[in-house]
């Protein structure tokens, strides 16, 4: 349906889907009925939301498979047949207008349950898009704001993403997450969410920490979510890892106010 539209109409479909969190069929129907006026089409959609949201609730597997083939088996990738590799992944993210180093890129990998960084298998790609009920770049692009909002507002989703990041970020042979990878993911995930994080990051830098274990990774999140910025409720007798005990001692000697 989208391939028959002019470029300006495709952009209006994308805008409509992003504004209304609806699907391509509803977007084209509303825009056509409203002479391609996005504002009028959005008003029309919300006045008849139940009807339009019932349209095309499932994704088309044939479209998903065709989309996968656009990015799979890139000539510069050496990941085996039937996979999207680093170069195909970069093209995929560019088409979505997603920064490869952003949290959104990590959220996409999580939603597709990718097991390997910078790669998607055909099953991961198909199952992930089917679960999200999208079968085109435009639909997936329109879905992105709601995925980001889900992680921002739903603590269970955020914890699931956080747990996923540890396994995703390390190779099969590694028991710990290299510190540079851990910091990159913490920067993505915490992103001004926790007051103590910048100070904790300085501590890790001064300590010359080499890696983060799974236990440390999990408990850092618990620490950030439960301990007050002044550390007054930190229980040194609790089941915290030594790393966090050491951070608290560091924070007492280097208060956050001095750090700032």
Model description:
By secondary structure, the chain is mostly helical. The protein has 3 domains: 2-53; 61-153, Recoverin, domain 1 (Orthogonal Bundle), CATH 1.10.238; 157-259, Recoverin, domain 1 (Orthogonal Bundle). Helices cover 63% and strands 3% of the residues. The strands form 2 sheets. The chain has a two-stranded antiparallel ribbon. Strands 3-4 form a two-stranded antiparallel sheet. It starts with 6 loop residues before the first helix and ends with a helix. The mean pLDDT is 91.
| Element-level helix/strand string | HHHHHEHHEHHHEHHEHHH
Number-wise, the strands total 4
Rounded mean pLDDT is 91
* Strand line-up in the sheet with most strands: 1-2
- Give the CATH topology of the largest domain: Recoverin, domain 1
* CATH level 1 name of the largest domain: Mainly Alpha
Relevant terms:
single chain; 260 residues; mainly alpha; Recoverin, domain 1; 3 domains; two-stranded antiparallel ribbon; 4 strands; globular
């Amino acid at each position: 349906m989208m391939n028959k539209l002019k470029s300006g109409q495709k952009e209006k479909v994308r805008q409509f889907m992003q504004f209304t969190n609806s699907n391509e069929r509803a977007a084209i129907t509303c825009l056509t009925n409203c002479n391609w006026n996005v504002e009028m089409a959005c008003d029309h959609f919300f006045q008849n939301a139940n009807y339009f949201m019932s349209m095309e609730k499932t994704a088309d597997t044939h479209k998903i498979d065709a989309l996968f083939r656009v990015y799979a088996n890139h000539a510069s990738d050496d990941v085996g047949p039937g996979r999207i590799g680093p170069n195909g992944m970069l093209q995929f993210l560019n088409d979505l207008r997603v920064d490869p180093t952003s949290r959104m890129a990590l959220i996409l990998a999580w939603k597709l349950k990718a097991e390997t960084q910078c790669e998607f298998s055909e099953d991961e790609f198909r199952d992930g898009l089917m679960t999200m009920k999208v079968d085109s770049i435009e639909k997936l692009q329109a879905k992105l704001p709601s995925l980001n909002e889900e992680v921002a507002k739903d603590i269970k989703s955020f914890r699931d993403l956080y747990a996923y990041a540890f396994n995703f970020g390390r190779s099969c042979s590694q028991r710990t997450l290299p510190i540079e990878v851990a910091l990159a993911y913490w920067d993505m995930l915490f992103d001004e969410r926790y007051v103590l994080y910048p100070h904790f990051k300085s501590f890790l830098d001064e300590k010359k920490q080499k890696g983060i274990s799974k236990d440390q990774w999990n408990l850092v999140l618990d620490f950030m979510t439960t301990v007050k910025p002044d550390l007054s409720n930190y229980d040194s007798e609790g089941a915290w890892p030594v790393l966090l005990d050491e951070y608290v001692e560091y924070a007492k000697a280097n208060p956050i106010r001095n750090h700032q």
